[in-house]
Write a structure and sequence with these properties.
The complex is a heterodimer of chains A (313) and B (328). Chain A is of the alpha/beta class. In chain A, 38% of the residues lie in helices and 13% in strands. Chain A folds into three domains: 48 residues, no CATH class; 126 residues, Nitrogenase molybdenum iron protein domain (Rossmann fold, 3-Layer(aba) Sandwich); 120 residues, Rossmann fold (3-Layer(aba) Sandwich), CATH 3.40.50.1980. In chain A, the strands form three sheets. In chain A, strands 8, 9, 10, 11, 12 and 13 form a six-stranded mixed β-sheet that branches. In chain A, helix 6 runs antiparallel to helix 7 and helix 7 packs parallel to helix 12. Chain A starts with 11 loop residues before the first helix and ends with a helix. Chain B is mainly α. Chain B has a single domain, classed as ABC transporter involved in vitamin B12 uptake, BtuC. In chain B, 77% of the residues lie in helices and 0% in strands. In chain B, helix 1 packs antiparallel against helix 3. The radius of gyration of chain B is 20 Å and the shape is globular. Classes of the chains: A alpha/beta (313), B mainly alpha (328). Chains A and B meet through strand 4, strand 11, helix 9 and helix 10 of A and helix 3 and helix 7 of B.
Chain lengths: 313, 328
């Protein structure tokens, strides 16, 4: 809809109106200003997409948002590239969808994003620094990645709402809730668990406020880092504490290749301090080369069930 | 002056002994001091106490003392040899090289993680070797400026290579953060065993170089007239410093700050620049400072461990500035 600007302010009321327009212009989105300027030059432009419009060309930077979209019947035009364990994180329907390289901490390359002509991006906290840049090139961005298991159905509903598929979203969320309930039902054992990220002599431990920590808790594990808090959900904890808290199970997420699993497990078993733990003595050190403990993939039920198996539940 | 030297040495030794004992006595797990002592003496204690006291704390304490002493002595050697108060192991590229070596293994070959100390040691020595070779080349056997410029270039090169690795493996960066931030780890005696020979060679070299460095501080011409070859002394001091700094980095990551600041602290406290005093005194003070820093890093928010590198900078800089102002 073309818009025209008042060219003069002949009365105090008009002047006030004029100041109001200027104020609106100062705080208006770039797209609106462009439309107004073009319109004032006598060019008719279509109005910019309203922020509530259902997006058509969507990029999903996280496996969770991409898989959820797929389950809701919408295919993203591109998904974020996952460096390790990719085979297990995206649903088969997304095999042919282009991968978008992501770099820490900003996420996707803006030039690449521009060429994809997307209108919406599902991002996550991990790429928070890139959000402004994406918005600057006219994209709508929403961070929709659950940080806890209980957030999964809630975020599913919010993604569905953005896609204009609230009814399907409610149905999917209900199914996810049921899966989580089933996966956490009948837990009898509560072994002490240490989950670590990385390799070398200073790996980071998953805390309760990490995704993996919450999954382990739901699967019946008692994190030996329980009660510790750090932003991001990870912290380097003392080997003395590992000896004293004596985990029954150690799960390592080393970002290695599947072929490295045996070697990495052996290194952890022989590590000073750790070698005396129940986990090392009973050879219950597990190495995961997938990303399922680092970020949600879709519904959390399958991940919880996998961890339950490791914990002997 | 001699009594001031003795006072500084005695105070340094006292702090070293206390910090050594504190490092053994305190940790993330509160153990009765008697139990720790019994475990260290080979007495009958529970397996857990034995593992913590003998398997974790004792090697870590020994490593902290060795690394602190090595970095401080490397700093003295470089500041003396290059006649530059800003010299530290960073200047001859050791830190950059060691950082790259460790990051390469941790990110590109995570299944070879036990080789991190060796990788850091080798690349630290390679970087220093390049810098010293370039610096001592050219007319009249090179110059201090050439060493410094070569050091800056090589440090930038290895720094860029390390950053490139981090960009190439963004999901694995967490494995390298601990090393790059600098800090002791509880890996038993393995790192110390790998680096021990280089530390020993570096310390012996430093002691032997004390007198030539003192002569060098009088100026190249006077040193030469006293029978000391400035070029050879600088090169040997560089090699000894490289061995010490690379060995230290292989054990505790990048803690170059210690090598810069401890020699200045000792000079300010003792009021002397004599290497025959500075080298042993810096070894003592460096060891004490790192022991204290590591004990704090292990206990302040236990059982979470803070990286000792940034912690020491945060605590050390105000102290250093206060001392600087007081002695101005």
């Amino acid at each position: 809809m073309p818009t025209t600007l008042p060219s003069t302010c002949s009365s105090p009321r008009a002047a006030r109106r004029g100041r109001g327009v200027i104020r609106s212009l100062l705080f208006a989105p770039a797209g609106l200003i462009r439309s107004l300027l073009f319109a004032s030059a006598g060019l008719a432009l279509t109005a910019p997409v309203a922020s509530s419009a259902v997006p058509k060309r969507i990029i999903a930077l996280t496996p969770y948002s991409a898989n959820t979209m797929t389950l809701l019947g919408v295919k993203p035009i591109a998904v974020g590239q996952v460096s390790s364990g990719e085979g297990s994180v995206y649903s088969a329907a997304l095999n042919t969808v282009p991968r978008l390289p992501l770099s820490h901490p900003s996420g996707p390359n803006l030039e690449q994003l521009t060429t994809l002509k997307a209108d919406f991006v599902f991002s996550s906290q991990a790429w928070a620094r890139g959000k402004k840049g994406m918005e600057r090139i006219g994209l709508r961005v929403a961070e929709r990645e659950p940080r806890t298991v209980s957030e999964v159905p809630r975020q599913t509903k919010r993604i569905a709402s953005i896609l204009g598929r609230s009814a399907q979203g409610a149905k999917l969320a209900k199914a996810q809730e049921a899966q989580i309930k089933a996966a956490t039902k009948g837990i009898k054992k509560h072994p002490k668990v240490l989950v670590v990220l990385g390799v070398g002599n200073s790996p980071y431990a998953f805390l309760e406020n990490s995704w993996g920590g919450d999954v382990v808790k739901r699967a019946g594990g008692t994190l030996i880092t329980a009660g510790l808090k750090a932003s991001g959900g990870f912290a380097r904890i003392s080997d003395e504490a590992v000896v004293a808290r004596n985990p029954d199970v150690i799960i390592a997420v080393p970002h290695g290749a599947p072929g490295d699993i045996k070697k990495i497990a052996a290194q952890m078993r022989d590590r000073p301090g750790w070698r005396t733990t129940n986990a090392a003595r009973t050879r219950r050190i597990y190495v995961s080369t997938s990303n399922t403990l680092l970020q949600p993939i879709s519904g959390a039920g399958t991940t919880i069930a996998g961890v339950r198996k490791i914990l002997g539940n | 002056m001699r009594s001031r030297h003795s006072l500084v040495l005695a105070a340094g030794l006292a702090v070293l002994v206390l910090s050594f004992l504190a490092s053994l006595a305190f940790g993330a797990v509160a153990l009765p001091i008697k139990e720790v002592a019994r475990a260290l003496a080979g007495g009958d204690v529970s397996g857990q106490v034995h593992e913590i006291a003998v398997g974790l704390r004792l090697p870590r304490t020994a490593s902290a003392a060795a690394v602190g002493a090595a970095l401080a002595v490397a700093g003295v050697l470089l500041q003396g040899a290059l006649a530059n108060p800003l010299a530290s192991p960073d200047v001859i590229g050791v830190t950059g090289g060691a950082g790259f070596g460790a990051t390469l293994i941790l990110l590109a070959f995570p299944d070879q993680a036990p080789l991190v100390p060796l990788g850091a040691l080798i690349f630290g020595l390679v970087a220093a070797g390049i810098v010293l070779t370039l610096g001592s080349a050219g007319p009249r056997g090179g110059s201090i400026e050439r060493v410094v410029l070569a050091g800056i270039a090589i440090a930038a090169l290895f720094g860029a290579a390390t950053t490139s690795l981090m960009v190439a493996y963004p999901d694995r960066v967490s494995s390298a953060i601990g090393f790059l931030a600098g800090g002791l780890v509880s890996d038993g005696w393995s790192s110390l065993e790998t680096s021990g020979p280089y530390l020993a060679a570096g310390f012996v070299g430093a002691v032997l170089l004390a007198r030539p460095l003192d002569r060098l501080s009088l100026g190249d011409d006077l040193a030469a007239s006293l029978g000391t070859s400035p070029r050879r002394t600088r090169l040997l001091a560089g090699i000894a410093a490289a061995a010490l700094a690379a060995a230290a980095a292989s054990i505790a990551g990048l803690l170059g700050f210690l090598g810069l600041i401890v020699p200045h602290l000792v000079r300010l406290a003792a009021g002397t620049a004599t290497h025959r005093f500075l080298i042993p005194a810096c070894a003592i003070v460096g060891a004490a400072v790192l022991l204290l820093g590591d004990t704090l890093a292990r206990t302040v928010v236990a059982p979470i461990e803070l990286p000792v590198g940034p912690l020491m900078v945060v605590l050390g800089v105000p102290w250093f500035l206060w001392l600087l102002r007081k002695t101005a």
